[in-house]
Write a structure and sequence with these properties.
This protein is mainly β and 228 residues long. The chain contains no helices and 17 strands.
Amino acid sequence: MGRPLNKKYFGNTNDPQIGGEGVASVTIAAPIAASMNTGATAVFSAPQLPGGVTATGTVTIDGAGDIAAIVMTNAGSGYTAVPTITVTDTVGGGGESTVLTSGAGGVTVALTAVKTNAITMTGRVVAGSTVALDVVKQTGSRRYLVTDGTNTGVVALVSEAVDAAGEAQIVATDSNNGTYYVTKLTAHRAVIVPGTGTQFPLVGGNPQSVPWVLDTAVLDTSVKIPNA
């Protein structure tokens, strides 16, 4: 199958062994009016990658009942995008909730950005919806042992949208964000079938094999493989 991928591309060097990040911090520029009690709790939305751990934190309510700070108690793991945070006042049966979104109302949620990025793919281990998959290991030139967080099994890369169990896709992008289905991935090259991309068309009806990167694709030279 050619030189196989280094296991680091599957997040195996991370702790836990998945890609994505944890939540490093939550910054609140100024107290947020909420009229809450000191027993208010914070609930973070779940991570995007299967096998990830939901972050946790404690809420500081000031003397006016406003949300003054959120202090992380567990960064969690498996986040590819910043989570939303729901602060709920459960003392006295009030049940008042406030949803905090990064970038709004002086709230900034920062991810750790310190873990090795892992290749991401979507697919179906079993029949049902197409979901994010965490790669355990490569088992062939186009086959991978993966988990969706509940089910574990082998999937094969396809050159179209996933519509059946046992199928998966890696969608690469060129320097203009044109898309390509990856049908084979080795240590340095990807065999790609054009989606919306035009930089690497079929040649004689056959897909091209091109260099791949995890950061920035180069015009007419390489494609970027999705990673987190």
